[in-house]
Amino acid sequence: MKAVVFDFGGVVFRWQPLQLLQQVLPAHARDEASAREVAAHVFQSFVPHSDWAEFDRGTVSAPELAERIALRTGLSVAEVGAVIDAIPPHLEPVAGTVALMRRLKDAGHPLFYLSNMPAPYADHLERSNEFFSLFDGGVFSARVGLIKPDPAVFDLMCSRFGITPADSVFIDDHAGNIESAQACGWQAVHFQSASQCEAQLAENGWL
Fold first, then answer.
1. Which of 15, 44, 50, 203 sits at a 20 to 30 Å CA gap from 67?
2. How far is CA 129 from the centre of its chain?
3. Total structural domains in the chain?
4. Containing H/E element for 137?
5. Quick one: average pLDDT of 10-22?
6. Where are the alpha helices (DSSP H) in the chain?
7. In the chain, pLDDT over 70 holds for what percent of residues?
8. What pLDDT, in 10s, does the model give residues 140-164?
9. Are residues 43 and 122 in the same domain?
10. What domain range is 135 assigned to?
């Protein structure tokens, strides 16, 4: 099975946290520099076992997350809650990536997704995007209790969907996730833009 596996945030869906924070918390994220500082404290680079990573894993609820981040950062619970609530509508589809997925599907490749995504966001994305019908399956982290870059989540993809890593390609915008996938034997593309990704896939014979 020559499967193509997509990350979601920053690949299939827009993820521009600095812009988001400037819109939601203008008093704190006044410009790009201050937004970057707020983002570092709020999201903690999504490193494993950070507050937001545990939200992605499904072990922390949205209210618990807001309280944890407020305690650490000095933001109010309401301010953090506003950020949490603003993310689902922020995750708009990247048109170029959706078009690429359609071309890959037309070329005969099964498509899957592997996304670090908390349950309420996953529910929203499934309800809001008709192109989910392109996927043959996928894994949201909160539904399985595993997050990238843990090798166990790549093993789960293989066992659940019959994927052979060496014959498949994983696409993600985070270098650490790419490195973990490659260590598990996957082909991988470090996503920077839809056009760059498509060119690399074409060069490697996927299109």
1. 15
2. 15
3. 2
4. strand 137-140
5. 97
6. 17-24, 32-43, 51-57, 62-73, 77-90, 95-106, 119-128, 141-144, 151-161, 175-183, 194-203
7. 100
8. 999 999 999 999 999 999 999 999 9
9. no
10. 4-14+92-203
